[in-house]
Specification:
Shape: globular
Distance between the termini: 17 Å
Number of strands: 8
Structural class: alpha/beta
Oligomer: single chain
Strand order of the largest sheet: 4-3-6-1-8-7
Amino acid sequence: MRKSKLRIYLIRHARPLVSREGLFSKAQAEQYLKDYQVAEVEQILPQPGHLPLPQVKKVFCSTLPRAKATARMLFGEEVELVEDALFREFENRIWGLPWAKLPLSWWQVPSRILWFLGLNQREIESFRKAKARAAQAAEHLIAEATQNGVAVLVAHGFLNEFIKRALVKRGWQVRVNGGRGYVGITQLEK
């Protein structure tokens, strides 16, 4: 008799209800990041069809409102929702000239690239520490899947990507790659 496969689902939160339109000063881009952290999210319709809904009894999620709200929309009030700061998104801080007015992505992309390079991490978690935290999160999910056959995480794009990479290094195979889009679902098996 063949043993059933272990599964891990990594789900990105739904789209936050915060506007990205227009030009932003550095201060406005920083305020956008703050607003994004506490924003409500769009309703999710229809429910994704490839989630093992009846089998899921526990869902891990970030402590941020967008992840918690998404988890509740997808899995309802019946599941145990385990909030843990281990699953929070990689931090970011806006870098740039204070007098410029630019599209939001022109603030975010260079800021994130500099963070990856270790040049924009003052007062926030470094990229090295964030990657180590993602590896720790992967181990946590592996333990859950080993015990219960399935582990589900509702969290954030960058974190989920680095958890996925850590799982692949540990022999897990990507069966469905949901990418980093909103409510993107990546399924891994072992």
